[in-house]
Amino acid sequence: MYVDLAIKRNLRVKSYKGDNTMNCHNWKIQHTLQSFILIGVFLFARPGFGAPVSMDLAEQVADNFLNHVSAVHTIESIKAVESNEEEVGYLVQLSPQGYILVAGDNIRVPIKGYSLTSTFSDLPETYTQNLLRELEVSTTNSHGILSTQPDNTNAPHWEYLLRPPKLAISTLIIQSYEPDTFLLTSQWNQSYPYNSLIPTIDGEPTLTGCVQIAVAQIMLYHAHPTVGSGVFTHTWNDQILTAVMNRPFNWDIMPDIVNGSVPQYQRDEVAALIRDISILNRANFGLDFTSTMFRYWDFERAFGYASIFEMDISDPDLFFTTIKNEIDNLRPLLLSMPGHMTVADGYASDGTGRKIHINLGWGGNYDDYYYLDQTNIIGPYSFSPDHRIFYNIRPCEGDECYPYVPTGGGQPPVITSSLPDIIIDGTGTTLRIDAYDPDGDTVTLSSSSTCDVQAELNSNLLTLTPLDTDIYCQVDVQAQSDDGTTFKTFNVLCLEDMIYLGTQYDIGGQFADQDEIDLYSAYLEGYTTISGHRGYSNQAFYIWIKDQYGNTVAGPSNEPISVNLEPGFYTIAASLRSDMIFYPYSDDRSSYLLRITGDELTYTVSDLATSLGISLESEEGIGLNIGWNLISLSEHPTDTSISTVLNTITDKYISVWAYIDGSWKVYDPANPGFSDLTTMETGMGYWINMSSTATLTVSGSVPSNYINLSTGWNLVGYNSDTAQAVADALASIEGKYISVWAYINGAWQVYDPNNPGFSDLTTIEPGYGYWINASEACTWTLPRS
Questions:
Q1: Quick one: average pLDDT of 667-689?
Q2: Out of 87-101, 142-156, 325-339, 472-486, least confident range
Q3: Quick check: bond before 96 cis, omega within 30?
Q4: Which residue(s) pair with 488 in the sheet?
Q5: Per-residue pLDDT, 32
Q6: C-alpha of 240 from chain center
Q7: CA distances from 9 to 192, 319, 379, 423, 535 (A)
Q8: What is the pLDDT of residues 122-157, one digit of tens each?
Q9: Closest of 371, 328, 320 to residue 346, by C-alpha
Q10: What 3-state DSSP class applies to 180?
Q11: Bridge partners of residue 575, in order along the sequence
Q12: d(CA 489, CA 705)
């Protein structure tokens, strides 16, 4: 079990006297690695069969590789190596020391592994056996799944290493490790906002745990997997926590440091990764420490990694040889120090081979090179040389991969993101959508919006782009799997100038200098707490609150503010300075987060829109002819009672009919008490018999963009404001309907999907009703502009 050791790092105010906390020093080491091209353990097995590589070719590859990395080593010997009595490659022994392992066929990456400082025989036997076994891995894995990569993926690497050195043109870059550098660029830690999605205790955020941070940073380094597998549950503090790994992992948006300059959706992406790892590891969350163990057997399968090996320091020579070999092959290791899990990702060139670079998972604090055969005093902690490593942490290849298979329990997908009504400004925003299928099936997300807000999904990232301001629109999100479809709807208020509203939210900001004062408008109500985070254990900047008249009602304070406020609009201010005292400005600590929490809030986003004179409703007009008309409502009425919906055509209609659940219902305005049709809603089609021409005007909100259809005939509406060709409008139920009928201007029109060229119904339009003959029960998802 590991207990996270959380560094308490304070930044002191300039005019304060010193205290016993650590002063602010941030050692930001700049390091850029060349683009990765060639290390075998990072590349997947390829489909098909490659040509065998001769010993002479293997020697040429090894020699050119040494020239490329500017090594002074020479080739001492070369021999074929076997696995399961099959020749799989060549072991090249180097002088004065080191080795290169060359693949035995050209379908794999040329260099499987190498070291310029240790010999192959010095490596753990289980490890070397695994390396050789990987060279004989079948191109089809045990589940019969072929890689999607082409056969010639590694051809450029072979071509590069087989050219004569004088003719070699460096069109490819082969990355090798250089001592005195380190592999990780991330500086994550265990507190806010990294812990924003894990459980709380009495409303207080718990720590993530050191294991989760170490593992997550190695996964970020590998940017793997794209999608995981398996469903994990963990019961903690009477809560059942669930992590479904068959979801997108968006590595490209995960930053090296998470602070106030990072958008909310990127912060959420990092926090979701850490949450899922903590559930897999069955963490015991706490406010002062979070204990857990690394369940690497589950980790390998869930995230698609190769077999992970473990070693203690009882044989120091073997221990440090293994660390150097892993780093030489660009593989960070998990380093378990007494009571704390870290990442070993580099070594020094001092010649001992025992001075190892450690990423401590403390936000970059104290990351440095340490002699691991000695006791190290790091911050307030002492670590004796009683270490363990977990190594060979890399994406799996071919037969190594053994993902979890969906259980197929038939449960529909779940959208776990709360998706409350939100406020955005004219720049728009991006939301991360958490959705999963409880059985582990693949979930596909789609979205639509109304008015002038574009809703575009890229994987599980929903980008909202307003085309105008001072508008109030609805956004629908749909999650679909083989087991069914789930929907969630929320409203978006777009303003020219942002106003914050909610019971819990973050505001991200960045100071340009020591004297800048940042101001934020917010509606606050009741007992409210505002805290700040700037990458230290203390707040390290000032916060205060002003009412709408400019009076300061709380602060300035360099600690969290808690105050009971009358409902109303306030200004939240943040600055490094308060009168004559200040915190020093630092470029690398200029970003901050404000965390606002409130006990209750009766004021809503729609209330704000109304107070600003922004309409919550739109209005449609439907032209009606004398006699029968087949119509639908494309705006959802505020009051759905039929007499209210039809009040603009009172005394101009004779009756209204609907076909609901296989039976007819009717409304007779002359005998409302005997009528069984009492409401009119979107999604339904209605026959209305008019005694004179008229225009039906309906005010309302935008409806959901999905309609459930039963097998057989359905009389439905069209919940969209966009006219489309029939096939396009019904694309979501393609193959699930037999025909579509409409009654337009006193004549029937039909669309037959099997004979579209002979169909006279060509367009689905708002305001009309439609008969759809469905061949099976299904959900019709409609387009939105």
A1: 93
A2: 142-156
A3: yes
A4: 477
A5: 25
A6: 22
A7: 14, 32, 9, 35, 9
A8: 887 877 887 787 787 543 343 333 333 334 556 777
A9: 328
A10: coil
A11: 517, 542
A12: 10
Residues 6+ apart with CB under 8 A from 250: 269, 459, 460, 461
Q: Which two tokens stand for residue 140?
A: 């089809």
Residues 6+ apart with CB under 8 A from 519: 571, 572, 573
Residue 596 · residue 507 · CB < 8 Å: yes
On whether the CB atoms of residues 402 and 587 are closer than 8 A, the answer is no
- What number is the average pLDDT over the span 273-292? 95
Q: With CA atoms as reference, report the closest residue to 300 among 188, 403, 421, 386.
A: 403
Is domain 414-494 given the CATH code 2.60.40.10 in the classification?
A: yes
CATH dotted code for 504-610 = 2.60.120.380
Task: Check the CA dihedral 48-54-56-58 and report its sign.
Answer: positive
Phi and psi at 367, nearest 5°, equal -60, 125
Task: Report the distance separating Cα 464 and Cα 458, nearest Å.
Answer: 11
Q: Whose structure tokens read 């010999």?
A: 119
Evaluate whether 593 touches 271 at the Cβ level (below 8 Å). no
How far apart CA 159 and CA 171 sit, in angstroms, is 11
From 660, 620, 613, 617, select the one nearest 639 (Cα to Cα): 617
Instruction: Kindly list the distances between the CA atom of residue 590 and the CA atoms of 568, 571, 663, in Å, as whole numbers in the listed order.
Output: 30, 21, 66
Report CA dihedral (698, 699, 700, 702) to the nearest 10 degrees. Answer: 70
Residue 694 in tokens: 């008229």
User: Residue 627 carries which side chain, given as an amino acid letter?
Assistant: G
Q: Count of CB atoms within 10 A of residue 248's CB?
A: 18
> Rounded to a whole number, what is the largest CA-CA distance in the chain?
104
Asked if 414 contacts 486 with a C-beta cutoff of 8 angstroms, the reply is: yes
Beta-strand (E) ranges in 600-746?
618-624, 627-632, 636-637, 653-660, 663-667, 685-690, 694-701, 706-709, 712-716, 724-725, 737-744
293 has a pLDDT exceeding 50: yes
C-alpha gyration radius of the chain: 32
> Which residue's entry shows tokens 């420490």?
289
Residue 199 CA to residue 335 CA, distance in Å, equals 26
* 387, two tokens: 């270490």
Residues in the chain: 785
What pLDDT band is residue 373 in, cutting at 50, 70 and 90? Answer: very high
Is 123 strand, coil or helix? coil
Class of domain 1-15+179-405: alpha beta
Residue 510: strand pairing partners: 591
Ordered DSSP codes for 416-441: -S----EEE-TT-EEEE--EE-TT--
Q: Is 275 helix (H, G, I), strand (E, B) or coil?
A: helix
Determine the Cα–Cα distance for residues 485 and 478; give it in Å rounded to an integer: 7
For the beta carbon of residue 56, count every other beta carbon within 10 angstroms. Answer: 9
Closest to 509 measured CA to CA, from 496, 499, 519: 519
Angle at 612 between CA 487 and CA 432, to 5 degrees: 30
Task: Answer whether residue 410 shows pLDDT above 90.
Answer: no
> 47-79, pLDDT tens digit by residue?
334 678 899 889 988 988 888 777 778 999 999
Give the residue extent of every domain in the chain.
Answer: 1-15+179-405, 40-167, 414-494, 504-610, 617-785
45 band by pLDDT with thresholds 50, 70 and 90: very low
DSSP H helices in 236-393: 264-280, 296-303, 316-328
Q: How confident is the model at residue 39 (pLDDT cuts 50, 70, 90)?
A: very low
Mean of pLDDT values over 623-643: 89
User: For 106-115, b where at least 16 C-beta lie within 10 A, e where not — what string?
Assistant: bbbbbbbbbb
At 22 the pLDDT is 19
The answer to which of 164-173, 281-290, 342-351, 758-767 has the lowest mean pLDDT is 164-173
**How far apart (Å, rounded) are the C-alpha atoms in residues 385 and 184?**
23
Query: How large is the average pLDDT for residues 373-402?
Result: 93
